[in-house]
Specification:
The chain is α/β, with parallel strands linked by helices. Helix content is 18%, strand content 36%. The protein has 6 helices and 16 strands. The strands form 3 sheets. A 7-stranded antiparallel beta sheet has the order 4-3-7-1-2-6-5. A 7-stranded mixed beta sheet has the order 11-10-9-8-12-13-16, sandwiched between helices. The chain has a two-stranded antiparallel ribbon with strand order 14-15.
Length: 271
């Protein structure tokens, strides 16, 4: 974990979203699924940084270029939306437990990625790594409308199949992203039963709960990245706990910023 000052080198806004590109003078590393805590350098209001999934990381000369896609929601993201090229952003990164690709990296298994809205920001780097590992990957991407299909062009550029759903029917299947996902599980029932697939998902809580229910019924190993509000990002404030099933069957709690944000879906209490 580093507390580092980054320079804004690109900032594009679209709808209620922002795509922020920051540059570091030193090399950075992270694993897909990890996140950063960001705020404009020197900002006093709000005091706390905002948690954002690391969308993509690239080498830039002797340093690194790191990208984030975020949705404007509250004072913290509004402050970030106002930064311009040349401004400084203070970042604490990398944070959290990443996705576990070990189960899908051997044995000819395939990865099914399920993303809702800005949740896809946590999955692009995973898709890129899976491609490097020669893991067959398929994405189910959903949003309220076409503008909410975050990262669609970047996923498509990877050459992986993408199943799209929008609530208003402006692109792809009309409805939630779980509709084409459920259909795929049904149409590939024999392969599902054989253990061919591992699922990785990120998005709103109700979407994750539905994915967890579908994959539990089909006995599919599933990892979810939960979107919890975080204040500190490294486990001190205990403000981002999620309910999990203890070994004795009783409910326990884990900090999403440290023990997560990635959990096995069957670890979590969804009711």
């Amino acid at each position: 974990m580093q507390d580092i000052r980054l320079t804004v080198t690109g900032h594009r806004t679209f709808g209620s979203y922002g795509h922020l590109t920051l540059t570091a003078e030193t090399p950075l590393t992270f694993a897909p699924g990890q996140f950063a805590m960001l705020k404009p350098a020197g900002a006093l209001d709000p005091m706390w940084r905002r948690a954002m999934a690391i969308y993509r990381l690239r080498r830039s000369g002797a340093g690194s270029q790191v990208e984030f896609i975020y949705q404007v929601f509250g004072r913290g993201t509004q402050a970030l939306r106002r930064v311009h090229a040349g401004d400084a952003v203070q970042a604490l990164l990398p944070l959290g437990r990443p996705f576990d690709i070990a189960p899908v990296a051997v044995g000819g298994r395939e990865a099914l990625l399920v993303a809702g809205g800005v949740g896809s920001a946590a999955l692009l780097a995973l898709a890129e790594q899976l491609k490097r590992e020669h893991v067959t990957t398929r994405l189910f991407l959903g949003g309220r409308s076409t503008v909410d299909l975050i990262g669609l062009e970047d996923f498509t550029a990877l050459g992986i199949p993408v199943h799209v759903a929008t609530n208003d029917g402006s692109r792809g299947v009309r409805g939630f992203v779980t509709t084409p996902f459920e259909r795929f599980l049904h149409d590939h029932a024999d392969e599902v039963r054989s253990g061919k697939f591992v699922v990785y998902a990120c998005g709103p809580g109700p979407m994750l709960a539905r994915v967890a229910a579908l994959t539990a019924a089909a006995c599919v190993l599933t990892y979810v990245s939960v979107e919890e509000r975080m204040a500190c990002g490294f486990g001190v404030c205990v403000g981002c706990v999620v309910a999990v099933r203890g070994q004795d069957g009783a409910t326990d709690y884990r900090r999403a910023c440290v023990e997560g944000p990635v959990f096995r879906a069957d670890e979590l209490e969804w009711t």
